[in-house]
Specification:
10 helices; 19 strands; binds molybdenum atom; transmembrane helix; Immunoglobulin-like; Oxidoreductase; molybdopterin cofactor binding; globular; five-stranded antiparallel beta sheet; Sulfite Oxidase, Chain A, domain 2; alpha+beta; Ig_E-set; heme binding; binds ligand MTE
Length: 521
Amino acid sequence: MAPTIRAFHTDGALAGVASVALGAGLGELVGALVGGSPVAAVGSVLIDLAPPWGKDLAISLFGTGDKAALIAAVAIVLLLVGAATGLLARRSVAGAQTVVVVAGLLGVGAAVSRADASTLAAAPPVVGAAVTLLALHLLLRRATASPAPVSGPVPASPPPSEGVGHHASRREFLVWTTGAAAAGLLAAAGGWALRAGSRAVDAVRTAIALPRAPVPVVVPATADLGITGLAPVLTPTADFYRIDTALAPPQIDPATWRLRIHGLVDREVEIGWDELLALPLEESVTTLTCVSNEVGGDLVGTARWLGYPIRHLLAQAGVHADADMVLSTSADGFTAGTPLETLTDERNAILAVGMNGEPLPIAHGFPVRMVVPGLYGYVSATKWVTDLEVTRFADAEGYWISRGWAARGPIKLASRIDVPRRGAAVTAGETVIAGVAWQQHVGVRGVQVRIDDGEWQDAALATAISDDTWVQWSLPWRASAGRHTLTARAIGVDGTPQTQDAAPPAPDGATGWPSVAVTVA
Ligand SMILES: Nc1nc2c(c(=O)[nH]1)N[C@H]1C(S)=C(S)[C@@H](COP(=O)(O)O)O[C@H]1N2
Ligand SMILES: [Mo]
């Protein structure tokens, strides 16, 4: 029986190795998509934990290849743990599952402990552990189908027909095991290729020195009230909301980037990256807002953009009189339909190349995106833009329109209370209520605040950078003990207050007054 016993044990180990290879491989692929590599994270934790002599030894052994060696070592240990887990599974399935779950949790711990951890950093190790568990279960079931040794801990039914059945089912088991391991390797390789691509474009992006705008926008010091907890008037790039349909942002080398303007025009215009940068770029500060922003939500942010007015390029192309829309297309196929007049009037509707003094981050549209003051992003702010078709609303529509969103998306008058936060514990006495308000390209005349069912009180507005940006506001408040509800409403330039009617984001933007309940003690 010795050969059978060996086969039996090897099968458990093989199933374990293949399951871990599949789980870890998929984990690496997911990691490449959401940012972060579980294996590299574990390696980094080991580097942090290693005693100095360990590091010195590794460097002297592997030289500058020490990182690759470390990652290879982590991968090998992982596969060995997989083999041991597969063996253990024949004795105790629960024990084996516990090992996988603990390994997954260690992976999560390592991934989220990294300083550059993305918000989804826990996803790859969780996916990896879940896939491993599932694969282990399925592969071991196939392994169990082969005959068990007489001395084995798990009794198995005798094979239906000696020899032939055994070989057929074992061959099947080996095919599945090899397939799982190969799929894991492919996934890991795919993740590696994705990362290599993003590193390449990232390196190009980092090396770019954008020209300076001849007329920088001066943001008045009085535009920011400097209140703790209040959104800064200029949103740091790292905090800027990100919304798109891209699983992984397109990686576009500016050297290959081209924009084509065509459709209802006298002559097509094509422009490349170098030509665009050679044009007189302009700086503008514009607040972007997502139509999906709920009342009180944070899908809104303000940045300093550098770009070239789209109206000049449209003028060069010669737009036909019957056109009323520009359909912009992104490298990843997303489209937005923008009213022609918003791209030809005097507003700062631009092909943006810079955000807050740097090339656009890849996630925010590198190398070129559109920014149009006054319109929700889904009808105007196309990232990774490569094509502008001059057309008509009657003939074309953007990505979200067939999905139930309005064809026109002007930004609605809105306000938000940032301070105090919802549910905050406020100390009784002199305090402050503060927030932001916006209706891009139209402007905001004022903001009013109501405490419980009291009178509307006028808040003080900070200096607005322009009508294309949000404006901060504040109101001193002598808070008395108890529970209070604070409500705000913006006042539009024509004196009309923001509507109280509550509407959901779909189809053309949420409405209603923001309010927060706080407890004052
Ligand atoms: N290519 C592309 N561009 C896009 C989108 C998208 O899904 N794909 N989403 C739009 C939407 S809905 C918004 S609100 C803004 C958000 O821009 P941000 O991610 O830079 O904040 O991008 C717009 N541009
Ligand atoms: Mo959006």
